[in-house]
């Protein structure tokens, strides 16, 4: 280690004062000058003035911000990498599962994961299904209709969450009823529709 | 509800149906998920509860014949849940799971069971004695059709039925047969069976499925591929090729033992019966090993005249399991007590020297 490299040791509030202003010191600067170890205790303010960052005293928000910043940087880097080599979107837009979490647990989080991770999943699927890559079996008779309803449900649930958040409870109640009606499916229309639709129209 | 009594005989141990000398049971299960909810492993507590509600409403609303018993697993204690595992009505994973989850079981035949909030929202299962894959498939297909007329399943045109684990995606179907292969084991042929199964893309598992050992020479053979192959295609493969071949192979091995090594076979069978009739302490796995030999004795005629029947022997396969043993004795026991009571139960059930 070169001679001039300073090292910092944090002090856990032992009451000793700052060697510049006498305030309680939070950091000790240790330098080696002419082969001798020299210690200097500093308070937070003086430490900042001489250009030492005092990590332990940083407010939590600041630390969080710096973590988030560095993550954003990492994400930006990853985005750069992806431009060269197609990688799955970092997280499923619907349930938030990351591809790494999927790799670790072997389970997907929701139906939309199949769409979000499709490029990365396709080769995995082929390997575990003896080359099979496309569904060749039963199709629900209402598949087309069902897919529409599926999309409608997803957007209604988002609207509901927004309504609750903005405290529009009347709107939220309406949305909730609509979601329940759709969830119940078309079979409900044959029998118990009378009880349900009355409240809708009221 | 939680005190619902189940019949002494589980469907898959009835001991009848074609090919019952080798095949205990045929099973088909479908993995299905509701559209618009995260899969159970990533669902909020509220969503899990909502899925339970919807499942209950729609499953009980089907008006199935025979009717189903709705079991809320959160309302059961650990022992009651284990009883369901031992009866192959729920998985170990489902018994241990967390949050709102349940099972609907057709009562009293226990042929149909539907797990709710296991790895997928629905795991529909139909089980039959002997070789009865076509019947099992027809029943499950009709239940699935009727559920699908009321529920939107998560489905994609490219990937089919969407499941939490990508190894189930597509048809979401798992076809399996529970085989009793003691003669092939005696003849040292099991390695060949395993290799052949692997070459056909099949998995070989033990009595209690994934991760369980092949205790008592019972093996489950099941498909592993669900994408790119239709249900019918898979069923035909099982019914025309796989099952008849394994059954024939085991029968040949049994014939071989009877004709060329009869003394060896009789010795194995009678020794096993002797132990079951006389032991004072018995572990569950050991009981399974001996019951397997006795089962071979009953179906091959070696035990003709002993008065033992196949349904009786198969019922014991279930009642030597810890939770069933406790159920039979109406009390909780520790492991040492269970060994004592298991040996007593076997002596009572099997014969003269009790």
**Side-by-side strand order of the widest sheet of chain B:** 2-3-4-5-1-8-10-9
What characteristic shape of chain A results from the CA principal axes?
A: elongated
Report the mean per-residue pLDDT of chain B as an integer: 92
Estimate the helix proportion of chain B, in percent. Answer: 40-55%
Proportion of residues in β-strands of chain B: 15-25%
Largest sheet properties of chain A: 3 strands, antiparallel
Instruction: List low-pLDDT spans of chain A.
Output: 1-15, 187-202
Structural class of chain B: alpha+beta
What is the strand content of chain A?
A: 5-15%
- Supply the number of helical segments of chain A: 9
Round the Cα radius of gyration of chain A to an integer and report it: 30 Å
Outline the biggest β-sheet of chain B: 8 strands, antiparallel
Q: Name the helix and strand elements of chain B from N-terminus to C-terminus, one letter apiece.
A: EHEHHEEEHEEEHHEEHHHHHH
Key terms for this structure?
heterodimer; A: 202 residues; mainly alpha; 3-stranded antiparallel beta sheet; 9 helices; 52% helix; disordered C terminus; B: 354 residues; alpha+beta; Creatine Kinase, Chain A, domain 2; 8-stranded antiparallel beta sheet; two-stranded antiparallel ribbon; 16% strand; globular; disordered N terminus
Outline the structure in words.
The complex is a heterodimer of chains A (202) and B (354). Helix content of chain A is 52%, strand content 9%. Chain A is mainly α and 202 residues long. In chain A, strands 1-2-3 form a three-stranded antiparallel sheet. In chain A, helix 6 runs antiparallel to helix 7. The N terminus and C terminus of chain A are likely disordered. Chain B is α+β, with helices and mostly antiparallel strands and 354 residues long. Chain B folds into two domains: 242 residues, Creatine Kinase, Chain A, domain 2; 89 residues, no CATH class. In chain B, the strands form two sheets. In chain B, strands 2-3-4-5-1-8-10-9 form an eight-stranded antiparallel sheet, with helices on one face. The two termini of chain B are 37 Å apart. Chains A and B meet through helix 5 and helix 6 of A and helix 1, helix 4, strand 6 and strand 7 of B.
């Amino acid at each position: 280690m070169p001679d001039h490299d300073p090292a910092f040791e944090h002090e856990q509030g032992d009451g000793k004062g700052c060697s510049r202003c006498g305030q309680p010191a939070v950091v000790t600067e240790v330098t080696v000058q002419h082969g001798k170890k020299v210690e200097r205790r500093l308070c937070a303010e003086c430490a900042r003035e001489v250009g030492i960052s005092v990590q332990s005293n940083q407010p939590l928000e600041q630390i969080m911000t710096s973590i988030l910043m560095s993550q954003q940087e990492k994400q930006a880097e990853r985005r750069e990498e992806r431009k060269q080599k197609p990688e799955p979107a970092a997280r499923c837009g619907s349930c938030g599962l990351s591809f790494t979490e999927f790799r670790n647990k072997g389970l997907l989080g929701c139906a939309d994961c199949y769409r979000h991770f499709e490029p990365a999943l396709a080769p995995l699927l082929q390997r575990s299904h003896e080359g099979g890559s496309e569904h060749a079996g039963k199709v629900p008779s209402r598949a087309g209709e069902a897919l529409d309803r599926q999309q409608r449900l997803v957007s209604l649930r988002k609207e509901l969450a927004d309504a609750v958040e903005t405290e529009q409870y009347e709107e939220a109640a309406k949305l909730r009823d609509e979601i329940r009606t759709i969830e119940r499916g078309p079979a409900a229309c044959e029998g118990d529709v009378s009880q349900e639709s009355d409240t809708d129209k009221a | 509800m939680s005190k619902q009594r189940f019949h002494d005989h589980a469907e898959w141990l009835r001991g009848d149906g074609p090919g019952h000398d080798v095949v205990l049971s045929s099973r088909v299960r479908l993995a299905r998920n509701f559209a618009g909810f995260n899969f159970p492993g990533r669902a909020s507590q509220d969503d899990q509860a909502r899925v339970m509600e919807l499942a209950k409403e729609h499953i009980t609303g089907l008006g199935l014949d025979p009717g189903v018993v709705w079991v809320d697993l959160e309302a059961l204690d650990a022992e009651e849940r284990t009883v369901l595992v031992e009866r192959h009505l729920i998985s170990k994973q489902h018994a241990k799971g967390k949050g709102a989850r349940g099972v609907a079981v057709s009562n009293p035949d226990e042929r149909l069971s539907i797990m709710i909030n296991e790895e997928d929202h629905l795991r529909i299962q139909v089980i039959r004695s002997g070789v009865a894959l076509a019947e099992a498939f027809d029943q499950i297909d009709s239940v699935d059709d009727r559920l699908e007329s009321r529920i939107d399943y998560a489905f994609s045109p490219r990937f089919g039925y969407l499941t939490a684990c990508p190894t189930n995606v597509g048809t979401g179907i798992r076809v399996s047969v529970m085989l009793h292969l003691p003669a092939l084991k005696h003849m040292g042929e099991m390695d060949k069976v395993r290799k052949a199964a692997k070459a056909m893309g099949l998995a070989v598992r033990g009595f209690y499925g994934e991760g369980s050992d092949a205790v008592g020479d019972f093996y489950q053979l099941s498909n592993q591929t669900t994408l790119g192959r239709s249900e019918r295609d898979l069923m035909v493969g099982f019914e025309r090729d796989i099952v008849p071949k394994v059954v024939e192979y085991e029968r040949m091995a049994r014939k071989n033992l009877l004709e060329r090594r009869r003394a060896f076979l009789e010795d194995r069978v009678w020794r096993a019966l002797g132990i079951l009739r006389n032991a004072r302490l018995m572990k569950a796995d050991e009981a399974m090993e001996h019951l397997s030999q006795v089962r071979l004795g009953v179906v091959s005629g070696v035990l003709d005249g002993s008065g033992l029947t196949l349904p009786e022997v198969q019922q014991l396969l279930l009642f030597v399991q810890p939770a069933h043993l406790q159920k039979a004795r109406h009390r909780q026991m520790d492991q040492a007590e269970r060994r004592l009571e298991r040996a007593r139960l076997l002596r009572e059930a099997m014969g003269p020297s009790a």
